[in-house]
Task: inverse folding
């Protein structure tokens, strides 16, 4: 079965830009509905970060798609990050299915227009990539990412969803994967608001001004820390 026309994706690899990434499972199948496959994604993120350094600011794994908010280090390309992560997950999934549920492999069979056939875990193409150029954009996307499981009715509060960075932001825990919260620029809230609104919690981004109060060691979003 053919999976349809392949979508193209424009990527702007600009040093210092934050990226909001979204990519989906093949045919939007709920391949990430098990803790096993979610852990494979977490491991893949870690492997990609090791080979292609980036600061991870936010993430969520949903049954059929993944959101990431990250800022690559100097000279690191988004394509390299995604390739490393996706291939790691695909290989583990294919190996597990071969050994434990070979009958399900037909669901992942992809026949391309040129006749080439292969098993595919991820949808063809790079997915969605948006460059975030302001502190407000970053915090709005963090809140959006963390609200995904709540909107779907999986949990009542974002931090209750195991497979996202919501709990890390709420409690400071770095399980199941660490985030670089120290490099996330903080929002500068309006002086007309009470002091209790002046929070770096990404879920409390309303009434923020467009100005930036950058995090330590980072002057602007366009000048990532070189490591």
Result:
């Amino acid at each position: 079965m053919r999976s349809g026309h392949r979508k193209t994706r424009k990527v702007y690899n600009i040093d210092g830009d934050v990226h909001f990434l979204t990519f989906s499972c093949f045919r939007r199948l709920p391949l990430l509905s098990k803790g096993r496959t979610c852990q494979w994604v977490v491991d893949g993120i870690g492997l990609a970060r090791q080979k292609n350094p980036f600061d991870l600011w936010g993430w969520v794994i949903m049954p059929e798609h993944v959101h990431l908010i990250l800022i690559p280090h100097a000279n690191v390309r988004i394509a390299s990050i995604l390739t490393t992560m996706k291939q790691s997950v695909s290989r583990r999934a294919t190996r597990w299915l071969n050994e434990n549920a070979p009958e399900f492999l037909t669901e992942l069979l992809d026949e391309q227009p040129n006749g080439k056939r292969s098993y595919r875990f991820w949808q063809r193409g790079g997915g969605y990539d948006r460059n975030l150029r302001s502190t407000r954009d970053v915090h709005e996307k963090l809140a959006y990412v963390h609200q995904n499981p709540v909107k779907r009715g999986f949990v009542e509060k974002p931090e209750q969803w195991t497979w996202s960075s919501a709990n890390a932001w709420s409690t400071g825990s770095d399980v199941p994967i660490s985030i670089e919260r120290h490099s996330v620029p903080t929002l500068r809230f309006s002086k007309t608001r009470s002091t209790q609104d002046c929070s770096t919690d990404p879920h409390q981004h309303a009434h923020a001004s467009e100005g930036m109060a950058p995090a330590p060691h980072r002057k602007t979003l366009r000048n990532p820390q070189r490591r």
